[in-house]
Amino acid sequence: MIILKSSKEIMLMKAAGLITARALEAAGKAVRPGVTTWELDKIAHDEIIRLGAIPSCLGYDGFPNSTCISVNNKVIHGIPSRTERLKEGDIVSIDLCACIGGFHGDSARTFPCGEISDDAKRLLADTEAALWEGISKATAGNKIGDIGSAVQQYVETRGYSVVREFTGHGVGASMHEEPSVPNYGRPGRGARLSPGMVIAIEPMVNMGTHEIEILEDEWTVVTADGKLSAHFEHTVAITENGPVILTALE
Ligand code: MF3
Ligand code: CO
């Protein structure tokens, strides 16, 4: 069941989204060679608490930290580690959720660590642009498939692939609600978008094959071919006046 939100509820979700954005920004600013993914998680965690919210990922299905941090060939759900130290040229995906007033915000971004290769730069820019392609289709009357199709086309025409096994999702009083929002699909297919729907759109884009594997920790998703992967995500409300990004910085 898709749970629609009133405009008052969307206002509350904006508060959760803003804290999510600020925590993501704080952690992102700390990305540099030598820092551990554990330290980045701590920065985001502390910022979420300082702003009065709760880190939704901490303890979710037993997840041990407040952020997912996925370096290079890790796609999503990387577990922050005291021994994982970033080095120049890494790309670092940070994904986090904050909950306040009973609602969640969910956002992710892949940050460059120091100077990265031109190929990696292009991957980051193209994945972020694919997210915006998806957001541009998040208007009332469109279908879920319009979003996925726009993302997939943008990504594949540039020679990359989209992950199939994990998707975007509804966001609200739960971090994950219906509908599922795949990063692939066909225009005109799937559930109709209507005002009051709030969804996370989150392309996971691989440099090589779309195939993924899950590590023995049962969380970390990696590319099957070991090539780089990037992840950008925003929580977006569908309104009469078009998409509203709830996890924007202001
Ligand atoms: N924030 C992730 C998402 O984009 C979910 C993280 S799963 C968790 O949907 F267990 F780490 F919380
Ligand atoms: Co999400």
Numbering strands along the chain, what is their spatial order in the largest sheet?
Answer: 8-7-9-14-15
SSE pattern, N- to C-terminal:
HHEEEEEHHEEEEEEEEEE
Class by SSE composition = alpha+beta
Q: Termini separation (Å)?
A: 31 Å
Q: List how many beta strands DSSP finds.
A: 15
What does this molecule look like?
It is a single chain. The protein is α+β, with helices and mostly antiparallel strands and 250 residues long. It contains 4 helices and 15 strands. The chain has helices spanning 7-29, 37-50, 118-136, 144-156; strands at 54-55, 67-71, 74-76, 91-100, 103-112, 161-162, 168-170, 177-181, 198-201, 204-206, 212-214, 221-223, 229-231, 234-239, 242-245. The strands form 4 sheets. It has a 5-stranded antiparallel sheet. Strands 1, 2, 4 and 5 form a 4-stranded antiparallel sheet that branches. Strand 4 (91-100) and strand 5 form a beta hairpin. Helix 1 runs antiparallel to helix 2 (37-50) and helix 3 runs antiparallel to helix 4 (144-156). It is globular.
SSE diagram, text form:
Blueprint: H1 7-29, H2 37-50, E1 54-55, E2 67-71, E3 74-76, E4 91-100, E5 103-112, H3 118-136, H4 144-156, E6 161-162, E7 168-170, E8 177-181, E9 198-201, E10 204-206, E11 212-214, E12 221-223, E13 229-231, E14 234-239, E15 242-245
Antiparallel strand pairs: 1-4, 2-4, 3-12, 4-5, 6-10, 7-8, 7-9, 9-14, 10-13, 11-12, 14-15
The structure holds 2-amino-4-trifluoromethylsulfanyl-butyric acid and cobalt (II) ion.
Name its key features.
15 strands; 5-stranded antiparallel β-sheet; binds 2-amino-4-trifluoromethylsulfanyl-butyric acid; alpha+beta; single chain; binds cobalt (II) ion; 250 residues; 4 helices
